[in-house]
Amino acid sequence: MFMLFIISFIIVPVLKCCGTETSTYTTQYDEVDIKEIMDNERLLVAYIGCLLDKNPCTPEGKELKRNIPDALQSDCNKCSDKQRENADAWIEFMIDNRPEDWTKLEERYSPDGSYRTKYLESKHNATSNVDESK
């Protein structure tokens, strides 16, 4: 009887809590306005500094920083549609408008350059599709 108690009330809850991966990242911060951050130098520099461990992070910055390695490795499999959309917008913005900062972030989170390559291929394909439709 005691063993049943241990299994039912201790082991099962621990496994449910800690032993299984969640299928998606939290959507708590999905409504953060990424464009507002990209358009505001002070906010942008603060987020970049957070991601590079140069300054403190906001709660959403901490969440982002915690999830980036897994998201990059899994090609954002756990991302919501909004998170994918924001990630694509952020990467595009950083590569096109802040290449020095992108290089620092890339060295930390994607040293093989795979996300830059993926973005450039996507951009090339989008340009090719526009040219073909003319």
UniProtKB/TrEMBL annotation:
InterPro entries: A10/PebIII, OS_D_A10/PebIII_sf. This is Chemosensory protein 4 variant. It holds the Pfam family OS-D. Keywords: Signal. SUPFAM superfamilies: Chemosensory protein Csp2. Residues 1-19 form the signal peptide.
